[in-house]
Amino acid sequence: MNEYNKWNELKIIIDNQDRKSFYIKPREVWNIHTWKNIWYESYWKWDFFTRPVLIIKIVWTMIFTVSMTTNWKIDNKFYHKLDNKYFEKDSFVTLSQVKVLDKKRFIEKIWKIDTTEFIEIKNKLKQILF
User: Fold this and answer.
1) Residue-wise over 87-112: b if at least 16 C-beta within 10 A, else e?
2) Which element (helix H / strand E) includes 69?
3) How deeply is 67 buried, as exposed, middle or buried, from its count of CB atoms within 10 A (0-12, 13-18, 19+)?
4) From CA 128, how far away is CA 77, in angstroms rounded?
5) Nearest to 29 by CA among 99, 112, 91, 98
6) pLDDT digits (tens, 9 = 90+) for 50-90
7) CATH code for the domain in which residue 92 is found
8) Where are the alpha helices (DSSP H) in the chain?
9) Cβ–Cβ contacts within 10 Å for residue 61, how many?
10) Domains in the chain: how many in total?
11) What phi and psi values does residue 65 have, to the nearest 5 degrees?
12) How many C-beta atoms lie closer than 10 Å to residue 52's C-beta?
């Protein structure tokens, strides 16, 4: 229960902040504030309630993202293995976890994925979703 209290305290702070003035663009990877998810969903592992996400598309104020993880060791239609130049460990984009997030959750930009790899990820997403 203590984790819920910590998250609720942070959520109040996040919700009360002014709208952030920075730009978010497709292909970027950002750390975001998040909470532990349920069942198959990837989730945070640290006390900071953060995780990386890849920005897929922005429509008005809706920011479409996919989660990232280092837990899975398979490259199939639901996971895309990223080039190791981004992280020291094998990292995957979890294609089955498309989410729309508010800008208030975004903490910091980590890097930008190259265009070729981003196109591969988008093509895989199209196959899964459509």
Assistant:
1) eeeebbbbbebebebebbbbeeeeee
2) strand 62-69
3) buried
4) 7
5) 112
6) 788 999 998 887 788 888 776 666 767 888 888 777 677 77
7) 2.30.30.110
8) 2-16, 115-129
9) 9
10) 1
11) -130, 165
12) 22
Residue/partner pairs of 62-66 with CB below 8 Å, 24 or more apart: 62/100, 63/24, 63/100, 63/101, 63/102, 63/103, 63/106, 64/98, 64/99, 64/100, 65/32, 65/98, 65/99, 65/100, 65/101, 66/93, 66/94, 66/95, 66/97, 66/98, 66/99, 66/121, 66/125
Distances (CA, A) of 40 to 19, 65, 67, 76: 31, 17, 12, 16
**Phi and psi based region of residue 7 (left: phi greater than 0; alpha: psi -120 to 50; beta: remaining):** alpha
* Strands of 50-59's sheet in order across: 79-81, 92-101, 62-69, 50-59, 28-33, 106-112
Q: Which domain, by its residues, includes 96?
A: 2-129
| Amino acid in the structure at residue 128 | I
9 by DSSP, 3-state: which? helix
Give residue-wise pLDDT tens across range 2-24: 766 766 676 666 666 766 677 88
Tokens of 125: 């997403």
